[in-house]
Amino acid sequence: MKETAWKWLSDNESKLIETSDKIWNLAELGLVEYKSSEILAKSLEENGFKVRRGVAEMPTAFVASWGSGKPIIGVQGEYDALPGLSQKVTTHREPIVQGAPGHGCGHNIHGVSALGAAIAAKIAMEKNGSKGTIRFYGTPAEETYSGKMFMVRDGLYDDVDAVLSHHPGSSNVAGIGSSLAINSVKFHFHGVSSHAAYTPFLGKSALDAVELMNVGINFMREHIVQEARIHYVVEDGGMQPNVVPPYARSWHYVRAPEREQVDHIYEWVLKIADGADLMARTTHKVEFIEGVYNVLPNKGLSDVVTANMREIGTPEYSKQDLKFAEEISTTVPREDKIEELRLSKRPGWQGLIDEVIDTEIMDPWDEGIVWPGSTDVGDVSWVTPTMEFTTSTYVLGIGAHSWQVVACSGAGIGHKSLLFAAKAMVGSVIDLITEPEVLKKVQDEFVTRKAGRVYKSPVPKDIKPPLKIAREQAGYKESQ
Ligand SMILES: [Zn+2]
């Protein structure tokens, strides 16, 4: 079966690359990935999948299914870009459109590696007469508004037996580290405007409330778990200095390794906001933007993916790929590359200082490590066994969310990582479909790791995906 699936992927390589490049060129931001999501949904539809578009109240979220009955194996694809990272496929900084978005996290590849795996799985299962269901989750806005969080809350993952996804990276590894749980929230403070010099006593400054709240938060830092991270920006601090600001708004992220730690710190932050009101004589409203879980890893799924990666073997790079990789890696100073490698904690990282592409297939080395970022894959991982693995899409020493990642995600090195990932993913899907004991082991581990803890969506029921905000940020006009 795997041979059938892998052959289909090899035969359709150029079509998949073309699809990835199309999404790369579109570079649509979270929740407005109208064209990118449609490219993937349509392609699945054309290949016999039944597609439900606009799920979980997001026009760019969809679920596509093929097959029937159990097991149900999910693959998931992201396709949102990042602001300001527009970049040509060149080895120096050169935007296509200055200030426009770009695929600085390689999500053009993320979606298409899963697309290829889903279709190839169907082709192989059809030929073999295998029972089971392949489900593709089209998951928008990973970078901003955590589309999966709404999809999990709406129960779309409730009956799925395991979920796989692939993320572009600089190593080939099915990691078993975790991530930080997060709450993202905005505080809208309301005061009273007044002439700031003549009649300041008539005014109540909403900006004062924002500043006092942040003073409170900054003092709080000393008394929370060390791994917690809180960051904020002031989105609106008033209009001009001679008007006491009647309105001000701040946006905060609260992160910590465990969901319950975030809940605890968040409760405290809410009290600090109340305290700011008392001091500044203001009122405020809380706007909850998102809340996601930390990732619950799964070693069983990691083993399956790693074995498949090794059976396939890492890609062969052309001279042109290597030249591109060599050149782009010179854009990072050696000392920065060393720090980036050190941060990865990859065993033997010192031996990679003079390497450009990581061509090894590593055993996961990150058991017990909490990576300092957050992802909505976390929520999925608490309702079903989940694995997101990486392949070497970009060169060693460059970090994600950079112009170099945009360039690599549209270049040969990225294309090869896409094909490799799709093959590893479909091989793993086939193992889970055809070997019930493997799936059982994975599910048993999932139960053990949850240790009786029950997933409860951090997002209040009345919170809807912020479609309007997303459209505004992407430059769509209100009337459109
Ligand atoms: Zn990403």
What does this structure look like?
- This protein folds into two domains: 2-177 and 295-450, Zn peptidases (Aminopeptidase, 3-Layer(aba) Sandwich); 181-293, Alpha-Beta Plaits, CATH 3.30.70.
- The chain has 15 helices and twelve strands.
- It has helices at residues 2-11, 13-26, 34-46, 107-128, 147-153, 206-220, 259-280, 299-312, 319-329, 334-344, 377-381, 403-409, 412-434, 436-450, 467-473, and strands at 50-53, 62-68, 72-77, 132-138, 162-169, 178-179, 181-190, 229-236, 247-256, 283-292, 370-371, 386-392.
- The strands form three sheets. A six-stranded mixed β-sheet has the order 1-2-4-3-5-12. Strands 8-9-7-10 form a four-stranded antiparallel β-sheet.
- Helix 1 (2-11) crosses helix 4 and helix 4 (107-128) runs parallel beside helix 13.
- Bound molecules: zinc ion.
- Zinc ion (ZN) binds at residues 105, 107, 142, 167.
